Amino acid sequence: MDDTPQPVNPAMLKFLTRLVTVLTATMIAGLLVIIALFVIRFWGNDAPDLPATITLPDGARATAFTQGTGWYAIVTADDRILIYDRTTGNLRQSVTIEPDD
After folding, report:
1. Are 97 and 79 in contact (CB under 8 A)?
2. Which residues of 49-85 are buried (b: 16+ CB within 10 A; e: fewer)?
3. Which site from 37, 53, 66, 71 is most exposed, i.e. has the minimal number of CB atoms within 10 Å?
4. DSSP-based three-state secondary structure for 45
5. What's the count of helices (H) and strands (E) in the chain, helices before strands?
6. Residues 54/67, Cβ–Cβ less than 8 Å
7. Cα separation, 63 vs 59, whole angstroms
């Protein structure tokens, strides 16, 4: 096997230099776009409106919260779902979850 170095083609080196430069510029532009999208997405105050206070029945301990249009629901530790009206804060419905057999 011959260990002598092969001659380098200058045209190939120019091509590789340009290719690396273009790929680097593309990666930087992509990173800037991702950062801009994160800033745009999290800049606004689009957080859901949470109720100021929630009054649970005696002995109930909240384990989860969810909300929909005009209502919000609390899942309690004793396997109940309490659905409240968003505007009045009154209990609309109580659903008891039956345990699996």
Report:
1. yes
2. eeeeeeeeeeeeeeeeeeeeeeebbbbbeeeeebebe
3. 53
4. coil
5. 1, 4
6. no
7. 13
